[in-house]
Structures are given as structure tokens and as C-alpha cells.
């Protein structure tokens, strides 16, 4: 499992594009928003939590089709399927690798970009906590979507369509945590819901993804 | 020995539905015509909403069927996963576009009603939002069906998507509820008699709902038959090309 994780991380870093792509996209979204809505600091600090969450989500979406596509093309996915490692574990490791290469950098970059959007000081901690808790769910759900569309040529659009509604609950609760935090309100309820969603997806979705992959490899 | 699973045989299914289909269609037509005419022309206007209240005869049944269609697809998918009856998978496939249309009818009639009543075509209200998400689920499901060439693979993948989607649909429902308290009024129909609307509106509404249910059943039967026949034709054509 660890070998697989290290291999995936190494591939992500060396193959180029995949690693920085999400970050660059996140940066672009956040930089372009003030141009779109105007440089009014009051307005920007109101919408900052939502924009940051949305940017992180879209950046995550962007890199999803890489999770299985390359392994599918060169046949290493078949090898993974016949390896002694259960498919569920392989899928979980893939999701973890995706989170380390896209989710984690997004979490770390969010405070810096929060400054650009004039996020209130109290908002930084809730934003970080919510992204830290929420982005793993995005990776796991995305892995499921990628597993569904792995056999389809040009499945990118389909992948986004499938994953989009599944992301809605995480986005709602995550952005709610960040917004309440920025306004100095109590944010424990949405935070618990977000944590619940993440735990639930991590516990259950790898089984669905593994089943789907097995169907696709049949 | 006849159990319900004998209907999983495509031939038996087509025979049975062929016999049932005319009856169901006529019943659906009669109850829709009766219900809608009764509702539109023979019920009084509401004292507050005026004649716009009559949109409920389309809005409520279609919204109800939009959710029940997904529920039916969920059951059919489960049957496909557990017992692998092809008719079940095809029925789920046949139901999806019908459900999508029901969702769109509910959204459209809601918008038409909301414009004069709430002063807006669209509001980010929990029920509206969750219906929009339901529309996305239907679209994704239909798109996945049509993107995969092998029928059995497609059936497997879409059933798993349907299971996962159901969980997330439920989750979204509560998420949007939490997210925003909206304009939508409470339940029009419930088992709790106190909350129900008055009988004048209630009975034509029931007839309309019966009409929509029957219409849905008829459409799903018809579309499932078409799917089975299309699959047979394809098999025949393949055999012809081989010989």
C-alpha cells in the first residue's frame, strides 16, 4: 500500500502538470473574482469564504480524470486488480494520493489567497479547518466518479456532471463553516455535519469505487 | 408455482404488460382529464392566491412522481445488482427520462406560479434547490447510460451510481434545508389531517395524482418494452451479420 502511495506521489510530481495544475487554477479563480465583482473590500470579504471554497472545489474537479486514466492506458490498473492488495484498499490509496497532491496544497494555499480576498482575521482558522476536513471527501467522491468513467473516451465532461451533485453537500457545509467563522458566529453544527459527510464517504465510497472499477475491468 | 420473479422473463413481461398497457393508459387518460378539468374549471379560486392556486394540479403530482421515479429506479437497480434480471435494469433505464421530465415539469410550473406569487421565477429555496440537484442526478444517470456501449456494464455502473446518488440526494436535501430557510410553504398533503388543504381542492388533486402515477407506470412499461425489443433487434442483426 505504501509502495503504491509513494509511486503515485512520485508520478504526480514528475509527470508534470498534475501537481501544480490545481493550485494554478485556484490562484486564477481567486485573482479573477475581484475583477469580476469589483474591488470593493467590504463585498470581497463577505464573499471570500464562498469563493475560496468554490475555487478549491473546482481545482479539485480539474484533476480528477488523472486518477485512473494513465493507469488504465498503460495497463497498470489491471495489474493492481490482480495484485494481492484488495481493490478497496488500492482505491483508498489512490484517493489519498490525490488528496495529498491536490487537496493538501489547496488547503495550504487558501490562507494566502484569503488575504487577497480581504478575509477577516477570525475567518482564517474556520476556513482552514473546514477545508482540511472537507477536501478529503472531495477526493474520495472524485475517485468514485473517476472509476465510473474510466473506460469512456473523453469522459471529462461526464465526470464533472456525475460528480457535481455529489459535491453539493460538502460545499454547502464547508462554505457555511467558513462563512460563520468569518462573521464570528458559532460554526460547530455545520462543522460536525461536514466531518460526518467526510467520515461517511471515506468509510463507504471506496467499496462503491472498487465495485465500479471491477465492472469496468471485466 | 408462480412468483413475482417470473415477470423478470422478458417474454413474460412483454406478454403481461401488453395485456395491461391499454387498461392503464385509458385509466391514466381518464383520471388526468377528469382531474385536470375538475381542478381547473370546477373548483373555486383561493381567497388569497386567486386562480393561480390551480397550478397545484400539475405541480404537486409531477413533483411527487419526480421523487418516486428515482425511488423506483433505486429499487430496480437493487434488484439488478442482487438478482441480475435484465428487465429490471432496463426498467430503471426506461424510468430515468420520464423522471427527468417530471422534475422539469415541477420546476417549470413552480417558476410560473412563483412569478406572480413570490415575485420571482427562481429562489434559492431548499425545495427548489434540491429539485435542481435532482435534475443533475437524472442528467448524470442518463448520460452515463448512453456513454457506455456494453449494456451489462452500463447497467452495473448506473445501478451503483443510483445507489450512491440516492444517499447523496437525501444528504443534499437536508444540506440545502440547513443552508437556507426559504419561501416554500409546508406540505400540502400529509397523513396528518389537520394540515391538509380543504376538501374542495383535495379530491381533484387526488385524481390528478392517480393520473400521474398511472401515466408514469404506462410510460415505463412502454419504454421498457421498447428497450427489450431494441435489444432483441440488435441481437438479431448481429446474428445476421455473422451468418
CA gyration radius of chain B, whole angstroms: 20 Å
| Whole-number total of structural domains of chain B | 1
Shape of chain A: elongated
Number of DSSP E strands of chain B: 0
Helical coverage of chain B, percent range: over 70%
Query: Termini separation of chain B (Å)?
Result: 39 Å
Instruction: Sketch the topology of chain B as an H/E string, one letter per element.
Output: HHHHHH
Structural class of the secondary structure composition of chain A? Answer: mainly alpha
Helical content band of chain A: over 70%
Q: Tell me the β content of chain A.
A: under 5%
Largest sheet of chain A: none
Q: Strand-and-helix sequence of chain A, N→C?
A: HHHHHHHHH
Explain how this protein is built.
- The complex is a heterodimer of chains A (218) and B (243).
- Helices cover 84% and strands 0% of the residues of chain A.
- With 218 residues, chain A is mainly α.
- Chain A has one domain (1-217).
- In chain A, helix 2 (18-37) packs parallel to helix 6 (87-116), helix 7 (124-148) runs antiparallel to helix 8 and helix 7 runs parallel beside helix 9 (188-217).
- The mean pLDDT of chain A is 85.
- Mean pLDDT of chain B is 82; it is low at 191-195.
- Chain B has 6 helices and no strands.
- Chain B has a single domain (20-47, 55-242), classed as Four Helix Bundle (Hemerythrin (Met), subunit A), CATH 1.20.120.
- With 243 residues, chain B is mainly alpha-helical.
- The radius of gyration of chain B is 20 Å and the shape is globular.
- The longest helix of chain B has 44 residues, at 199-242.
Summarize it.
Chain B: InterPro entries: Cyt_c_assembly (IPR002541), Cyt_c_biogenesis_CcmC (IPR003557), Cyt_c_biogenesis_CcsA/CcmC (IPR045062). The complex is a heterodimer of chains A (218) and B (243). With 218 residues, chain A is mainly α.
